[in-house]
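Input (structure):
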């Protein structure tokens, strides 16, 4: 059986790369939503207010969001999959906050959603890289990570180096994907001017070198702090007039640079703080060179997402990072990319690169080189990998709460309705049995093995409506065997009444695709076989939309549609329409035959 998924992408802060994933999938009507508590604007506003604002933002994300995420998972399982028994809710969970994946894996038996940790940051690795080393904390989190990876439904990393480092320390998962936090080139096409006029005017005629995003303790700040003033010092006044550095950043590194550069080349350095999305996109589109940094100790951490955005916006990525990091590999993936990687602390190399970047022809060549990198790393190129991961997880998940409730309610209704029906119509059953015995002889009941749920065979019971078949007779002679008596009980659907016993036994349901012949199983194509993913029924969506007047392809298409959209309301609708269909005696016979001709198959399985 093949299940589809609805995905909840969970991160305490919205926007950014997470929102891009959602936007790309929604272009194709894929059921995915972003669950968060802080809007990007709120997050940027809090971070721009110094230490107190950053602490408040962390508390909101760290304390409140995990509770919100759990109840969102419960809602997805208990409510949002209602009416879609083949859908499975999946949580793509970022490490924001860092213990969120652990919590949702731990509570999986309660919410019954698949959980895929998206390892954006890995702890305690990040703490240790920042110089925060507590043996008890590292030991506890190492055990927690090993347990979480073992019990998650799949793992997703955003860099090969970060994956390798994590797997060496915590172990691997059999279903693991590496999908970077990519950007979309389409996002940076036809971007309107949104920057403040004064800043925009200052940028005109300058080669803009920007830093966008957080500057935390895992970033190399010192190299920039020493290298930028030294570079500007070497330039003539005329050259300086054509160079500009912009920091649209936040965090302790931003505060440090603001202080350090407060009286240094004020006409060449601008600090804007975090920018709204429209201004952020405008800045990247007008940036020639985008800087990303990682401290030497942070070699195993992931690529800053802003680097992919910069490449998508046709910026030249310049990285101050360890040579064995994912960030270094990205910068080196283009021709001449080696020239744009600087080891942390190598101020002379940074100055040399800045000086060379003043050469228009070299910048033009770099733009062309990184166009292929942008194409290869566009988010649209990775959607199939996401789908593959979601499909693997969905097919291994247990039923959601909504699906469990649907099947339980349907079974209770089947038992109650079939039991009540048999109690009421037993005189009709007795009279029909006597009539069959008199008109057609033995046996009274037609018994035949039919495929049930997941193709498992069961014995179907019906009143016999045809004379016994001579040997070597196929379905083309059914019309000759069908007597007037048989036609009458078929027209009134009386021949179907014994199948209520199949319903009571659990072989069938009142509503579902009609059970056909065992021999048809090998003739279905990959879509038609989906009709076996539901328990067969006495009546179904095909029966109330044409019955035997439809051809096989039409009937199977209706059956598959029912399987993929089944719900209590749809079942009730089918039962009500069945009454009308029986009373009007519509669709009893096929166009060219008293009964449906044999299905011979018309497609090749993939």
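Output (sequence):
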């Amino acid at each position: 059986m093949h299940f589809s998924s609805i995905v909840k992408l969970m991160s305490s802060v919205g926007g950014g790369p997470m929102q891009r994933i959602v936007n790309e999938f929604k272009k194709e009507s894929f059921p995915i939503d972003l669950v968060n508590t802080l809007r990007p604007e709120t997050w940027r506003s809090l971070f721009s207010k110094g230490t107190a604002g950053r602490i408040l933002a962390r508390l909101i994300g760290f304390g409140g969001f995990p509770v919100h995420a759990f109840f969102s998972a419960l809602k997805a399982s208990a409510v949002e999959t209602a009416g879609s028994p083949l859908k499975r809710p999946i949580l793509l969970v970022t490490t924001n906050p860092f213990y969120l994946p652990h919590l949702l894996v731990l509570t999986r038996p309660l919410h019954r959603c698949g959980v895929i940790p998206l390892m954006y940051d890995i702890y305690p690795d990040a703490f240790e890289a920042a110089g925060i080393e507590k043996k008890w904390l590292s030991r506890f989190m190492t055990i927690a990570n090993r347990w979480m990876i073992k019990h998650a439904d799949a793992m997703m990393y955003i860099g090969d180096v970060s994956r390798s480092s994590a797997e060496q320390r915590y172990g691997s998962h059999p279903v693991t994907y590496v999908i970077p936090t990519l950007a979309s080139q389409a996002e940076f096409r036809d971007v309107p001017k949104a920057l403040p006029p004064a800043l925009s005017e200052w940028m005109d005629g300058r080669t803009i070198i920007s830093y966008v995003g957080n500057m935390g303790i895992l970033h190399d700040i010192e190299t920039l702090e020493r290298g930028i003033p030294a570079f500007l010092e070497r330039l003539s006044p005329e050259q300086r007039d054509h160079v500009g550095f912009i920091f649209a950043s936040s965090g302790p590194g931003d505060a440090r640079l603001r202080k350090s550069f407060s009286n240094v080349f004020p006409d060449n350095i601008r600090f804007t703080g975090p920018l709204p999305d429209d201004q952020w996109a405008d800045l990247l589109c007008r940036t020639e060179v985008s800087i990303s940094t990682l401290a030497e100790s942070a070699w195993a951490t992931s690529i800053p997402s802003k680097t992919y955005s910069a490449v998508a916006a046709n910026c030249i990525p310049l990285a101050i990072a360890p040579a064995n990091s994912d960030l270094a590999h990205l910068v080196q993936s283009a021709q001449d990319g080696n020239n744009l990687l600087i080891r942390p602390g190598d101020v002379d190399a940074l100055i040399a690169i800045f000086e060379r970047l003043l050469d228009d022809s070299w910048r033009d060549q770099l733009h062309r080189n990184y166009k292929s990198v942008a194409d290869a790393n566009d988010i649209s190129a990775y959607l199939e990998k996401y789908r593959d991961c979601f499909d693997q997880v969905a097919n291994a998940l247990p039923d959601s709460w909504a699906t469990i409730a649907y099947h339980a309610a349907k079974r209770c209704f089947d038992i109650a309705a079939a039991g009540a029906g048999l109690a009421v119509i037993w005189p009709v059953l007795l009279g029909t049995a006597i009539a069959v015995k008199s008109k057609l002889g033995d046996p009274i009941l037609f018994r035949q093995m039919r495929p049930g749920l997941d193709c498992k065979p069961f014995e179907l019971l019906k009143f016999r409506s045809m004379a016994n078949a001579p040997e070597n007779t196929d379905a083309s002679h059914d019309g000759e065997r069908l007597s007037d008596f048989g036609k009458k009980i078929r027209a009134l659907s009386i021949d179907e009444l014994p199948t209520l016993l199949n319903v009571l036994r659990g072989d069938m349901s009142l509503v579902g695709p009609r059970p056909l012949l065992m021999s048809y199983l090998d003739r279905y194509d990959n879509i038609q076989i989906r009709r076996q993913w539901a328990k067969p029924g006495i009546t179904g969506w095909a029966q109330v939309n044409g019955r035997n007047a439809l051809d096989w392809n039409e009937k199977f298409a209706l059956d598959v549609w029912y399987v993929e959209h089944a719900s209590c309301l749809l079942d009730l609708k089918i039962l009500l329409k069945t009454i009308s269909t029986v009373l009007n005696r519509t669709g009893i016979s096929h166009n060219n035959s008293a009964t449906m001709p044999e299905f011979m198959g018309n497609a090749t399985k993939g």
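Notes: DSSP finds 24 helices and 16 strands in the chain. The chain has three domains: 4-182+383-394, 186-377, 401-584.
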